[in-house]
Sequence to fold (309 residues):
Amino acid sequence: MSGAGEDAALAAAREQLIGAAKARAAVRAFFDPATSTISYVVHDPVTMRGAVIDSVLDYDAASGRTSTASAETVVAYVRDAGIILDWLLETHAHADHLSAAPWLAKTLGGTIAIGEHIRDVQAVFGDIFNAGPEFRRDGSDFGRLWSDGEHFAIGELPVTVLHVPGHTPACVAYVIGDVVFVGDTMFMPDYGSARADFPGGDAALLFRSLRRILELPPETPLFMCHDYLTAGRQDHRWETTVAEQRRSNVHAREGISEQEFVARRRARDAGLSMPALLLPAVQVNMRAGRLPPAEDNGVAYLKIPVDRL
Fold:
């Protein structure tokens, strides 16, 4: 990503948001308490075209069983509202939940899409899981790969894609109409930011991605992908604004330097345990939410690399 490319993409996103009075997105959030994940349905009220962002497939690690119960609530809402689904958008290859995008695509239609740097994630984790030659590391499991600054539309809602690496190399934020979906790059102001110690993570890049989002217009609504409660808050929240984050984000508010952020982020990451579902989630999500191919007995298996991470 060149500096010129970054500036052009950010300028386009700012211009879109400033002129967004004519392109207001309708947003419905779905909170999954098991993983503290927030999925979204966003649609254009004029054309009723829509997208699902960061869907959740229920997974019980103890039994290895999956369920579509959470995704079924999304389907019910989409059908009841009369929304025509065009996209299943992923902000990154999640390490804390399995994506329900393939099931939703089969049930409602739509194309599964993610940032083009998913190829970097596939290269790293393809080796970690020894995925074999049948695993394609070119991003082709996804229906569409976005580049930084790429534009598309959901109905009459303009969309600008911002590459915001640091948590993972493939992280993107979606500027849709007058709102922004930030993925795991940023959390609510009292929780701060995502970890940057996964393979391919980079705390300095994460800081620059955070600052990029915080250069958007101050009144811009920001929607989080997760909310983990802090000691001072008992109610889950997932919507904030650029202004609130600039003022109050415990990791990235105005006045915190890159050097200070990196030191704090690395110190915090050193004390964090691995996400409970990292091993099943990544090897499914790097395949666009699909399980590994079934073996000769018709059963799909997930691997646990021993002493590798």
Summary: Residues 61 and 277 are 7 Å apart (CA to CA).
